[in-house]
Amino acid sequence: MTKAVEQRRPPIWLYGIAVFITQMDGGAISTMLHSISQTYSISSMSASWVAGLYTLGLVIGTPIAANFADLYGTKKVFLAELILWFLGSLLTFVSPNYVFMLLGRLVQALGDGGIIVLSINAILQVAKQNKQGRKVSTIGVISGLSAIFGPIIAGLVLGITKDWRNFYGFMMPLLVILFLLSWRFLDNTTQDRHQKTDFLGIITFTIALSSLMLAITLAQHFNQYLLMIIPLLVVGIICGELFIRTEKKLTAQKMPFLPLHLLKQPAYRLTILLGALGGSLFSLFVYIPTYVHTTFGLPVRLAGMVLVSTGLGSVIGSYLGGLLVDKRGMRVALSVSSTLIGVMSLGIAFTLASLPIFLILSFVLGIGLGGLMSAPLQVIAGRLADPDDRAQAIGGLSTMKKIGITIAPLVFATAMQFSAENGVLGLASYRNMFIVVVLIALGCIWATMKIPFEGRIQDRVY
Fold first, then answer.
1. Cβ contacts of residue 358 below 8 Å, gap of 6+?
2. What letter would DSSP give residue 191?
3. Which fold is adopted by the domain 258-462?
4. What is the spatial distance between Cα 194 and Cα 71, in angstroms, rounded to a whole number?
5. Closest by alpha carbon to 277, among 377, 382, 134?
6. For the purposes of burial, counting CB atoms within 10 Å of the CB of 424, is it exposed (0-12), middle (13-18) or buried (19 or more)?
7. Could you give the CA distance from residue 306 to residue 312 in angstroms, rounded to a whole number?
8. Do 405 and 349 meet the contact criterion of CB atoms below 8 Å apart?
9. pLDDT, tens digit, for every residue of 188-204?
10. Best CA proximity match to 275, nearest among 384, 127, 389
11. Three-state secondary structure call for residue 127
């Protein structure tokens, strides 16, 4: 049974504001990265940890936030997330050196991990089944708009103040206002089951996942970091085994850190696989500005503006994906989105020398990405779970998306190096990258066809 202090509908508008504010950082950091590198006089490899460590924090923080929300209540966890985000922003704002700044980024990520998960869970809690797709897609639309406005605001802050730190100074008052609104309008809905936290499960899972993620990240420079990669893999495997054994032996008095019973369902396994495949596609955004810069000679900052086309497409695709879920079903939504991604990527692969064609095709590619990642997968995960572990189910999906984002650069970089000439990437290298995207899209279509869309997924209503 679910109980709350007052039976009020969750303030969806508040969750929307929270998503918009916290997701601006993802787009803004690409604009500020050059200035950050100059401030601390760091190499491009070191600069990659500004985003890489943030992703690691998201992977760790998301399942923890989802677990705590199901155990202690949405309001408490949501407020804790905002406090962490504020502290991370403060540390980044006052950072005297690079290491201190990275610490701030990690704390920020831990605070960001549960925002979208808790927002989607709140929407699924109140939305009618025939409107869940459109309701959930609003989070994708807001997140997409935030990713577009983030670089614009960061650029304005840099242009006016000449200091990237002031972006976080700008964010902190917004977070304070958001915290006060959340304190006032959120109810602490909890599950009446009186279970304790599985701290051993949290510790072993966090160490296992952190070790494996770091090993994957360092594998992009395999020869340089071989002596670190092997121990990290060993630690990750050992802690992963300990985690599984711990979860299997839990008593009824403790709440499992992850809902392992969901992993026994083929539909959920295929859904999180789709999450990982879809998440990997977002790594394209790392390479597109470089492709435009080297191929067409545009300045790096101007080259990054081509992502606006893909971003706008993803915003439109987010809404259309939700509409398809409600009108035609989840299989159609996933199949259409994956097909768009595959066909557009194939078209880009063979027209790389034309910037106008790339802008058009990348816009449609964005529609496919938005449709795939905004609503269908979240709705499936939410319907498969019971009300008391729905946040965990959505959190598991979100975690797999981040894992896909982490693994993809290694795959894309390897594919591009096959056609590099004397270490220099040319059109053939970028063609390989988009061919890999086509293969990922085919994998998404295959997984979609295998999901058993019946019973619990199609008919379950809370």
1. 292, 306, 348, 351, 352
2. E
3. Growth Hormone; Chain: A; (1.20.1250)
4. 8
5. 377
6. exposed
7. 10
8. no
9. 665 555 677 788 888 88
10. 384
11. coil
Q: What CA–CA distance (Å, rounded) separates 225 from 208?
A: 19
At 456, is the pLDDT very low, low, confident or very high (cuts 50, 70, 90)?
A: low
DSSP secondary structure, 235-298, as one string: HHHHHHHHHHHHHHT--TTEE-SS-HHHHTSHHHHHHHHHHHHHHHHTTHHHHHHHHHHHHH--
Measured between alpha carbons, how far is 178 from 18 in angstroms, rounded to an integer? 7
| Beta-carbon count within 10 A of 456 CB | 15
HSE of 341, CA atoms in CB hemisphere, 13 A: 32
Per-residue pLDDT at 140: 85
* pLDDT tens by residue, 366-412: 999 999 988 888 888 888 887 777 888 888 888 888 888 888 888 88
Burial of residue 4, with CB atoms counted within 10 A of its CB: 0-12 exposed, 13-18 middle, 19 or more buried: middle
Residue 152 tokens, joined: 């614009």
Q: Which CATH number fits domain 11-187: 3.40.50.150, 3.40.50.2300, 1.20.1250.20, 2.60.40.10?
A: 1.20.1250.20
Highest mean pLDDT among 1-10, 93-102, 254-263: 93-102
Residue with tokens 């992009």: 220
Residue matched to tokens 């983030």: 150
What length does the chain have?
A: 462
